[in-house]
Design a protein that fits this description.
Elements: H1 2-19, E1 36-41, E2 46-50, E3 55-58, E4 71-76, E5 81-87, E6 91-95, E7 105-111, E8 114-129, E9 134-148, E10 157-164, E11 167-172, E12 176-180, E13 183-191, E14 196-203, E15 207-210, E16 219-222
Antiparallel strand pairs: 1-5, 1-7, 2-3, 2-6, 4-5, 6-8, 7-8, 8-9, 9-10, 9-11, 10-13, 11-12, 12-15, 13-14, 15-16
């Protein structure tokens, strides 16, 4: 587990170096959209599809990549994490139905001053909606680390760790994020100049995570309905 955490924070540093920012936020509608995005993934066989229906295909013999790829690099050697520079799109979905739960996998998107993604065990599909600030993961008996950007420059990055049986969703909001689908003991961390975290027992129901109202504190409130 420690090795996986080290890998995640190495990836954080790599993403920050690409964007040149330490405090990132989702672009507001008035901001010009980026022209390119970086796609990070560690799956041996997978399909990545953008909002336009174009694909990156990796290790699937009967399918071909038709998405334009400007640059391909190895971001990390052990485990191998690929990064590919592609045209910006409103969302990206990675599908890896044959992924083994024995290995942890990662899928992140970085686009100018916004990035998000997920890593962990048992993940077979990850969808990242850059404009809505929404990350959805699906699979079986998942152990997850989800790193989400939030709306507005007042919010830091949030890392949410926990387990989910079939699906988990994180949707960014002005105060932080709304999380659903996680169960059992988990952690919520704020990633800024003074990192801090708290533990929380998830029940699968939606909760609001507020990291703005009280500086240095994480407020968690179950959502009604």
């Amino acid at each position: 587990m420690m090795k996986r955490l080290i890998g995640i924070f190495l990836l954080l540093g790599l993403l920050f170096s690409l964007t040149g920012c330490a405090g990132l936020h989702q672009p507001e509608p008035t901001e010009p959209l980026p022209e390119k995005a970086w796609v990070f993934f560690s799956y041996g066989r997978c399909r990545i599809t953008n909002a336009e229906g174009q694909k990156i295909v990796f290790g699937i013999d009967d399918e071909q990549t038709d998405m334009e790829v400007f640059n391909t690099q190895v971001a990390e050697d052990t485990p191998v994490i690929w990064r590919e520079e592609v045209p910006y799109s409103a969302f990206f979905t990675l599908e890896a139905p044959g992924a083994s739960r024995e290995y942890a996998h990662e899928f992140y998107i970085s686009a100018d001053n916004y990035w998000a993604g997920a890593s962990g065990y048992g993940i077979k599909e990850t969808s990242i909606d850059l404009r809505a600030g929404k990350i959805r993961v699906a699979g079986e008996n998942m152990e997850l680390n989800i790193i989400a950007d939030v709306l507005g420059s007042k919010c830091p990055l949030i890392k949410i760790s926990g387990t989910a049986q079939e699906e988990a969703v994180v949707e960014c909001c002005e105060k932080g994020a709304v999380v659903s689908g996680l169960t059992g003991e988990g952690k919520i961390a704020v990633l800024d100049d003074n990192d801090y975290e708290t533990t929380y027992t998830f029940t699968g129901e939606a909760v609001e995570i507020d990291v703005v109202s009280q500086s240095g504190e994480i407020l968690i409130t179950p959502m009604e309905g």
